[in-house]
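Researcher: Here's a chain I'd like modeled. Treat it as a single chain, no partners, no ligands.
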Amino acid sequence: MRLILFGPPGVGKGTQAQLLSEEFGVPHISTGDMLRDAVSSGTDLGKKAKAIIDAGQLVPDDVMIDIVREVLSSPKIKRGFILDGFPRTLEQAKALTKIFDDLNIQDYKMVNLEIDDEEIVRRLGNRLVCVNDGKIYNMEFDALTPNSPCPDCGGRLVQRDDDKEETVWNRLKVYHSLTAPVLYYYKDSGDIYHIDGSGSIDIVNREIKMMVKGSAV
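Model: Modeled as a single isolated chain. Structure tokens:
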């Protein structure tokens, strides 16, 4: 499986990537997780990225491209990968094509998860993250509130700054202006699958597997 999961923030790319990663035994490459690791480590890159992420903006292309190239060059992706959160700009898309060419990575598929902006704002506004292990919960479905203990490890649950309503709307504005046009870059390949991301996790997961079945087995 060589899969690119595409779509706006909050559509469920990370959740689906994790499920597919566990089922098919291929790495989930999340640029968001990589950046958050850098932020928590307090490196120069992390400090720079934090200011950008908190404002709902995109991290510079050169930084993201270097991160992705390094990961895709590693032996761990020999059996495949699920790329989540990249490419987000046309420059990143062009750079990814070159990375694939340089590394002889072929037969990849792109799944575009689609959902209304209002639903994204609602979803992310209900999201809580454990400060210890990064596990995600939903205030509405899990009956939890900020600063509650994590049901799994007891760590404090927080709402990330980039999940707050004002920042989410800004993130969506950036997505529509800079990220959505990436779809036009890939449209001629014929390997883009469009899926309604508003369904349940199980339904979306089943539809992804049905659409990419030929490349996943």
